[in-house]
């Protein structure tokens, strides 16, 4: 009877096969191409989000420091070039300077005291020969220290000639129409208005009177508004 050897296959002297050596470690599965593309896509999205976050932070920092895109051309100072005229500022107003000068300059009637305006009456001669017509003069003087506006129109004036209690002549008796004439009189200066008298008599309503003033002494008074002048005495020959 033939005996079998104890070693069996091990006693034959053969090495274990490659399959037998790798049975103790799991084999690596091949990477799925779809899964690889998904990982690349997700990685790209993360990089994009990171880039946007960094860029946004930089833009906000620049805007806070005044150097960002929020600044407009109107807020940026314009650089003056040599030989060029700088553009006017946005805040400049062409109406600022004229309005200030007009508001600061006093008006002609500001501070003008009507009590310091005086009216005087005068004639060009003290005595007149027969047939010679007197020239009656009204004179208004500004006694203020500032200019005054005064109405020197015929609507305010009256030239009156009397003799005792007899009312001889008034320039308003036959005045067809009246007008205003406002003038500015400087401090201490005067304005005059002349009226040539024809040596005639008048009454209110301008009724015709044939009688003429006789030889004698006459009084001329001038009125401007509510102010009446002192008497100016003259002779008619």
Structure explained in plain terms:
By secondary structure, the chain is of the alpha+beta class. It has a domain at 114-226: Immunoglobulin-like (Sandwich), CATH 2.60.40. Helix content is 19%, strand content 25%. The protein is built from 3 helices and 11 strands; from the N terminus they run αααβββββββββββ. The chain has helices at residues 18-21, 33-64, 96-104, and strands at residues 117-123, 127-128, 135-142, 148-151, 157-163, 166-170, 182-185, 190-196, 216-224, 227-228, 232-236. The strands form 3 sheets. Strands 2, 5, 6, 9, 10 and 11 form a 6-stranded mixed sheet that branches. A 3-stranded antiparallel sheet has the order 1-3-8, with no helix packed on it. A two-stranded antiparallel sheet has the order 4-7. β9 and β10 form a beta hairpin. Residues 1-23 and 66-107 have low confidence and may be disordered.
* CA gyration radius, whole angstroms: 58 Å
What's the multimeric state? single chain
In percent terms, what proportion of residues is strand?
25-35%
Distance between the termini: 203 Å
The main β sheet shows up as: 6 strands, mixed
Total beta-strand segments: 11
What is the top-level CATH class of one domain?
Answer: Mainly Beta
Poorly predicted runs: 1-23, 66-107
Approximate helicity band: 10-25%
User: What would the principal axes of the Cα set say about the shape?
Assistant: rod-shaped
Order of helices and strands: HHHEEEEEEEEEEE
Tally of separate helices: 3
Mean pLDDT: 74
Query: What is the H level of CATH, i.e. the homologous superfamily of one domain?
Result: Intracellular proteinase inhibitor BsuPI
Structural class: alpha+beta
Q: From the 3D structure, determine the CATH topology of one domain.
A: Immunoglobulin-like
CATH architecture of one domain: Sandwich
């Amino acid at each position: 009877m033939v005996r079998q050897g104890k070693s069996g296959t091990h006693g034959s002297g053969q090495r274990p096969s490659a399959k037998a050596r790798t049975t103790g470690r799991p084999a690596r599965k091949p990477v799925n191409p779809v899964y690889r593309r998904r990982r690349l896509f997700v990685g790209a999205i993360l990089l994009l989000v990171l880039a946007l976050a960094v860029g946004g932070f930089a833009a906000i920092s620049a805007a806070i420091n005044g150097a960002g895109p929020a600044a407009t051309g109107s807020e940026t100072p314009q650089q003056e070039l040599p030989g060029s005229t700088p553009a006017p500022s946005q805040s400049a107003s062409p109406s600022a300077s004229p309005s200030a000068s007009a508001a600061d300059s006093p008006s002609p009637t500001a501070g003008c005291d009507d009590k310091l305006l005086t009216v005087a009456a005068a004639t060009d001669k003290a005595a007149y020969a027969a047939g010679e017509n007197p020239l009656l003069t009204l004179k208004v003087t500004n006694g203020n220290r500032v200019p005054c506006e005064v109405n020197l129109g015929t609507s305010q004036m009256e030239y009156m000639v009397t003799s005792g209690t007899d009312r001889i002549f008034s320039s308003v008796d036959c005045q067809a129409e009246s007008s205003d004439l406002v003038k500015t009189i400087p401090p201490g200066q005067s304005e005059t208005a002349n009226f040539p008298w024809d040596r005639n008599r008048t009454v209110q309503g301008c009724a015709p009177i044939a009688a003429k003033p006789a030889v004698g002494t006459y009084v001329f008074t001038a009125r401007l508004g509510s102010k009446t002048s002192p008497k100016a005495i003259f002779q008619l020959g």
